[in-house]
Amino acid sequence: MEIIRHGEDEVYEAAWSGCVESLNALIEKDPHILRKLAPVLTTKTETPLHISALLGHLEFTKTLLTHIPKLAEALNSFRSTPLHLASAGGHKEIVQALLFAYPDACLCPDEKGRIPLHYAAMRGEVEVLKELTHANHESIYVRVDNRLKETVLHLCVKYTQLECLKFLVQLVRDNGEFLNSKAGSDASMTILQLALMLGQIQA
């Protein structure tokens, strides 16, 4: 992960290690040190919050959010929010903290057109899916914003995530139209057809 420094290298170093004591010492030394990271919000680079969310540093993440909640809105060079990274990593408690700070991140697509829910499904993170769907049930119906226009159900089948598929199907079982949605390179494959093509009999 490439990081563009903004003169606050020690904050980034603390984020990599997840050392809350170091962060608190830096804040005590310079109470405005985190405010100096404000330009990061508009430069599309990794913030310390992206790093701590990615690496699963819960207390560090909470400390950052206490001081600057708007860091939860920042996009990195891949247009990912910290919630994208925490969701992909299966960091449930960090996901909870980030959703509290910025619930709209549920619907933010990254440069690949995927929202955090898509990454949780692709990685088999059922507990994270529960948090994301509880925060925004409508996120289930958001398709990947690319030429394939896959649903989250297609992603579960494609990445062989049966438990995620079971969980999500239970949530949408009364929506036959969505369950039979078609996607793919020719926009003509349902999840059942995709499962058969991939030999996923259980799916």
TrEMBL record:
<dbReference type="InterPro" id="IPR002110">
    <property type="entry name" value="Ankyrin_rpt"/>
</dbReference>
<dbReference type="Pfam" id="PF12796">
    <property type="entry name" value="Ank_2"/>
</dbReference>
<feature type="repeat" description="ANK">
    <location>
        <begin position="112"/>
        <end position="132"/>
    </location>
</feature>
<protein>
    <submittedName>
        <fullName>Uncharacterized protein</fullName>
    </submittedName>
</protein>
<feature type="repeat" description="ANK">
    <location>
        <begin position="78"/>
        <end position="99"/>
    </location>
</feature>
<dbReference type="InterPro" id="IPR036770">
    <property type="entry name" value="Ankyrin_rpt-contain_sf"/>
</dbReference>
<keyword id="KW-0040">ANK repeat</keyword>
